[in-house]
## 1
Amino acid sequence: MFSETKAFSGFSVDDIEAAKRFYGETLGLRVTEEHGLLTLHIAGGTTILVYPKDNHTPATFTVLNFPVEDIEKTVDALAGRGVRFERYEGMAADERGIFRGGGPLIAWFTDPAGNVLSVLQQ
């Protein structure tokens, strides 16, 4: 039924302008805005819809993952842009905030609306 449909994902934020600055300037994504909605343009032609929601509640799970070749370099660059990395109970992270406990190396952070994002080493 949907094998030929180009699906896309979306998530809410409480402040479209803050999201536009964060995703466009801090993360360096191409962001477009139309009708009060943001579209994040991700490599490979993928798009993600970001929409305002007055009673927004941040996602308690990772809504967007960014695979990277060098997680330490990426974490350092993001930290230099003011991004703070999350630490979760029971998941020991190193001084940079990188979890090295099995599986891919991963570091979690949040957008201005509190949604969880990650960078993970390929």
Note: The longest helix spans residues 16-26.
## 2
Amino acid sequence: MRAVVLEEPGPVDRLELKVLPVPEPGPGWVRIKVEAFGINRSELHTRLGLAEGVTLPRVLGIEATGTVDADPDGVLPLGQQVVTMMGGMGRTYDGGYAEYTVVPRSQVVPFRSELPWETVGALPETLQTAYGSLTTGLDLRSGQTLLIRGGTSALGMTAAALARDLGATVFATTRDPDRLRVLADHGVDHPLVDDGTVAPLVREILPDGVDAGLELVGTPTLPDTLAATRSQGTVCFTGMLSNRWTIPDFYPIAYLPRGLRLSAYGGESGDLPAEVFQRYLDRIATGEFSAGPVHVYPLDRIRDAHRDMEEGRRTGKLVVRL
């Protein structure tokens, strides 16, 4: 099979397309014939040597979409459509950047859909993270207001769609004024240009601040996201588009505005219930829901996909279709 292997951290040319043996699943594991996989910042962090707990060489990829190709325990039928994500994929064992991947059955989510593989392949990790951030991380409710920091990322656009679906009013940021229209066309109520300080813009519209903030850029913008959120509101730290996620000499009393709650979210496949995933697939199929633009690459253009992600050339999700 063809697979993308990282031997050691570095620039995009460290991603090597190789021919490897098709992996064999043991008890409790299944083999998936990969039809599509999404590109994630997590894999960029791994490639750059920023991720912890990664063993190399490694086939990258924290998610994959395809069909069950082998299940030695006979639990899942061959040909069953499935998605899988996280659980050590692409970090401690080989992941989804390949024509076949082997994963624990416990992290497989079955579904049925006639949507194109690239459409389904854009969803697993992004939908899981957005859904978990808004529910577990923020407990967002209908009628509340939400600020998404990093709004034109795939995660930001999916979170905006989910929040609007919940009945929330959405503020979302972009560093590029030319992308304000993208946010507005995606249903964002208040698109904002982010020059590093957006709290005053938010408070011009909502003097008390938003009810909730979703931080997807990282620690450089977190203080300003906190400043844009009302007392008794909640900010969830989920993303690291800036590649910075630690706070030097963190002193909570000085750092956190009084009365504000700071949470964090990082999930696994089990945090995306199969019925939730199926429901959004069905709604995408009927045109009722959109998670945002999808940009598709063949496997042999994996370096282009990584380069586009690293340099922020695209809005929405980058997907490889095999």
Note: The first strand starts at residue 2 and ends at 6.
## 3
Amino acid sequence: MSIDLKQLRYFLAVAEEKSFSRAAERLHISQPPLSQQIMKLESELGVRLFTRTTRSFELTVAGKALMLEAAELLARMRMTIDTIRQIDRGEVGRLRVGIVGSAMWGPIPALLEQFQSQYPRVTWTIHELGPNDQWEALRARQIDVGFWREPRIEADVLKQANLRQDLCFREDVCVAINAKHPLAQNEAIELIDIAGEPMLTLHLDQSAEPRYLIQCCVNAGFQPTIFQEAAEPQTLLAMVGAGLGVALLPQTTSRIGWPGVRFLPIRSNPPSANLYITYPVEGDAPVVRAFLNILFPEQPTDA
């Protein structure tokens, strides 16, 4: 049996119009090909779909049953085609976003809000992970995109992992210092000004970022004394507020307004806290494309 959707569409037009001539006009075809398709459909099914006399034109019992089934089938097919096109445009699907916690104090929430507004049928989830864990999750296809900060991954390392990394938000590092510290009275300081202060940092083995910040201190002329390491920026701020040391954190951290802590800009050559997005190069990921087109509206990026 060989029945195609075109035959069902032709049959439905004839059934609804109750006229071959009107159906042919509606379908923008001549009447003979239409009649041939209906006869072919009846032959394939082995039933009569219409009773025809010189004065009447009616559906048979089988024809009435097919009319209902064909209408539902064609409606489902239209819905399927529409859904497939929406999926191709990234309007339907799932997006798993890896992110470092400090990025949620910056522009990421607004970005996610815009994405949800433009693509309400996409389900997205946040996975708060350190850069190392995001890297492994991206390679294992457990997340679709990842956000983390400096330093940028080397191009050859990204290529070997079939990943791409793009700069999405620029930001500098500032010094988080106890509000009672003498330096806290300044509007801004130099990085060398905290030489000799106990340094509070994220775990040095958690990612390359804290090691990068230590190297920035060395480049500024001093070797910082690491007093304590922590897993979360909030823990560092709590220790700064208790007067246990200073911490280097992204400027957007100051939006938290942590009690007993001042956030001082660094005047000369502040370390970068730039935020990067990392995502797979290979494979067709329409939802990722849609997300990137919001992130880079004037510079669409292939996912």
Note: The longest strand covers residues 93-99.
## 4
Amino acid sequence: MKKIKINVGAAIITSFLCAGGVGTAQADSAASARILVGFPAGGNVDLVARLIAPDLSKALGRPVIVDNRPGASGRLAINLATTSAPDGSTFILTPGVALTLYPHTFTELRYEPFKDLAPVSNAVNWNLGLAVPSSSGIKNFADYVQSIKADPNQTFFASSSTGSGQHLAGLYLGQTLGVALEHVGYKGASEAIVALVGAQVPAAVLNIGELIQQSEAGKIKVLALFDSKRDPLLPDTPSIAELGYPQLEINGWLAFYAPAGTQPELVQAAQASIATTLNNAAVKEKLRLAGMQSASSTPEELDAKGKKEFEHWQTVIQSLPNFSKF
């Protein structure tokens, strides 16, 4: 099988101006700017936005608020971003899958990801993990494979939402193992974790930042990471590559975007501010403890990354038998 390495991923926010301004591109400093987040407060996307906002505010010389607009797996916030004025007052932080995966999984999108949004910077990367309840008695990945092949009731797996990268990672895992895994979508990671800990579902594919606490508490067992190497936060958990399935390397990411048409001077100033924040040692540590790695980029690098992974997801979905859009 052709190896497909997918950085699932993530996306959007930020801004721009230095306090001293960028010539005619400078926006009205009397008004506040906003970072749109398509998920509730308290989650990892919200965390990243709030870590970025203070330094961004200094760069802009005006308040920067985090504007949570949860709904439709983050698509509501993207719709709002793409219809906002490209004047440096609106940015969005979004998972990369909203641009690279959703066009292949949802029947209706109100945005064209590479036309309606201007890339600013990658923000963070993270790993996905496959986990089971500790009460299941499954000790390792081999046990899990044996379980799903022997008992159809064990083929269900949870994720934080339908159509997400976690959802597709689970389907791709099943196809690779020769077992039709059945997805159970929840309204957010917290609901999926509760179901997993309570053994309401036999397994889950989630971001490792959402699994670490319950793993350390001994309530769940993380069997594998969808990566080429182990993660320092879960050193005893093997990577999917070392288990013999390198084609299943799937990483998540978040990135900042602005409405299309935002002036390049504003995008470059925003990118510089984001990179400075993400290079701060204290910020890096907070992200690490949440299961994320700081990873800024240039707008050009983010654009190339998104387009490449758009094609990767297309290839994966074409390989899934009888897949239908949602």
Note: Confidence is low (pLDDT under 50) at residues 1-29.
